[in-house]
From TrEMBL:
Protein name per Swiss-Prot or TrEMBL: Lysosomal-associated transmembrane protein 4B
Alphabetical UniProt keywords: Cell membrane, Cell projection, Endosome, Lysosome, Membrane, Signal, Transmembrane, Transmembrane helix, Transport, Ubl conjugation
Membrane-spanning intervals of the chain: 28-54, 75-97
GO cellular component: cell projection; lysosomal membrane; multivesicular body membrane; plasma membrane
Function description: Required for optimal lysosomal function. Blocks EGF-stimulated EGFR intraluminal sorting and degradation. Conversely by binding with the phosphatidylinositol 4,5-bisphosphate, regulates its PIP5K1C interaction, inhibits HGS ubiquitination and relieves LAPTM4B inhibition of EGFR degradation. Recruits SLC3A2 and SLC7A5 (the Leu transporter) to the lysosome, promoting entry of leucine and other essential amino acid (EAA) into the lysosome, stimulating activation of proton-transporting vacuolar (V)-ATPase protein pump (V-ATPase) and hence mTORC1 activation.
Family, similarity comment: Belongs to the LAPTM4/LAPTM5 transporter family.
Compartment(s) of residence: Cell membrane; Cell projection; Endomembrane system; Endosome, Multivesicular body lumen
InterPro entries: LAPTM4/5 (IPR004687), LAPTM_transporter (IPR051115)
Organism: Chlamydotis macqueenii
């Protein structure tokens, strides 16, 4: 319980830092949230790979669920191959959405970082053809 509370408080802190960094346009404050998103994406990818490599683990997991779990018997009666395909499709949708959110945070970081950059590009245009 203490570990779950500590992780929850840390996540709230990281999200608050990202919000503050975006609001005040401090790009460095967004990096911890971005790193968390990358870590979360990697863990979800490992889950998808483990479902793909060990499809029988889904049936083992379903057997370990409590007897009062809703729709447990209906899920257990589904063809294991079909269940793996459904779970992989669901995880793929989640990974695509997480990838989109990572892209959003990265674009926000690049925008703030570019906005705070003091370099100014100067283009000189002349009619000289030589």
């Amino acid at each position: 319980m203490c570990i779950a509370t500590a992780i929850s408080l840390l996540m709230i802190l990281i999200c608050a830092m990202a919000t503050y960094g975006a609001y005040k346009q401090h790009a460095a404050w967004i990096i911890p949230f971005f790193c968390y998103q990358i870590f979360d994406f990697a863990l979800n990818t490992l889950v998808a790979i483990s479902v793909l490599v060990y499809p029988s683990s889904i049936q083992d997991y379903l057997r370990q669920l409590p007897t009062n779990f809703p729709y447990k018997e209906e899920i257990m009666s589904v063809n294991p191959t079909c269940l793996v395909v459904i779970i992989l499709l669901f995880i793929s949708i989640i990974l695509a959405f997480k990838g989109y959110l990572i892209s959003c945070v990265w674009n926000c970081y690049r925008y703030i970082n570019g906005r705070n950059n003091s370099d100014v590009l100067v283009y000189i245009t002349t009619n000289d053809t030589a």
